[in-house]
Amino acid sequence: MAPWTAKLTVMNTTNQDLKLVSKYVCARNSIVSFPTSIPAKSKAVFEVITPYGEASGPEFKISLVAQAKDNQRSLGSFDFHVDIPYWSPKNTLHYHCNRDLLCQVIPGMIYDRDQSYNGEVIISALEITDMVNKKVLNEKVQAKSFHEF
User: Fold this and answer.
1) What is the distance between the alpha carbons of residues 56 and 136, in angstroms, rounded to a whole number?
2) Quick count: other Cβ atoms within 10 Å of Cβ 138?
3) Closest Cα partner for 7 from 123, 124, 121?
């Protein structure tokens, strides 16, 4: 019987480093790879396995925060949790990005009864284009003009 695996490849396409600020790894899991930071424009892998003979499945949680440089502010954070319990057919996968980070997790779900997860997330910065800025400014000007009457 092969070991059960939970693996997430993180691709950081932003201009800020991502720092691991919190983590949880099931005590019965063995860590294959668990980086503490992911430099800007690079990738890293988080992976745990459940060794043969253990009565538990792979589970880990991470929270990554974008590290601001100079006078910038942090782009935000990314949280991820995967749990593939040995004792239950109900697997869980949760993730969340906030503020100015966009996250595309593939696959974005895990089927019940699966014994492994091998996914990737592309983390990018939300881009505010001139077109969006012009639209917002135009809406504000129109709203102000409407209230003047």
Assistant:
1) 51
2) 10
3) 121
What would the pLDDT profile of 72-100 be if each residue is shown by its tens digit?
899 999 999 999 998 888 999 999 999 99
Question: Tens of pLDDT along 18-40?
Answer: 999 999 999 999 999 999 999 99
Cα angle 51-53-57, degrees, rounded to a multiple of 5: 60
Give the pLDDT band of residue 113 (cuts 50, 70, 90). Answer: confident
Cβ–Cβ under 8 Å, residues 46 and 91: no
Strands in 59-67's sheet, in edge-to-edge order, are 37-38, 17-25, 59-67, 77-83, 92-97
Q: Which residues pair with 123 in a beta bridge?
A: 12, 103
Distances (CA, A) of 92 to 55, 99, 133: 18, 24, 38
pLDDT at 137 over 70: no
DSSP line for 72-121: -----EEEEEEE--SS-S--EEEEEE-TTEEEEEES----TT---EEEEE
What count of other Cβ atoms lies within 10 Å of the Cβ of residue 49?
Answer: 18
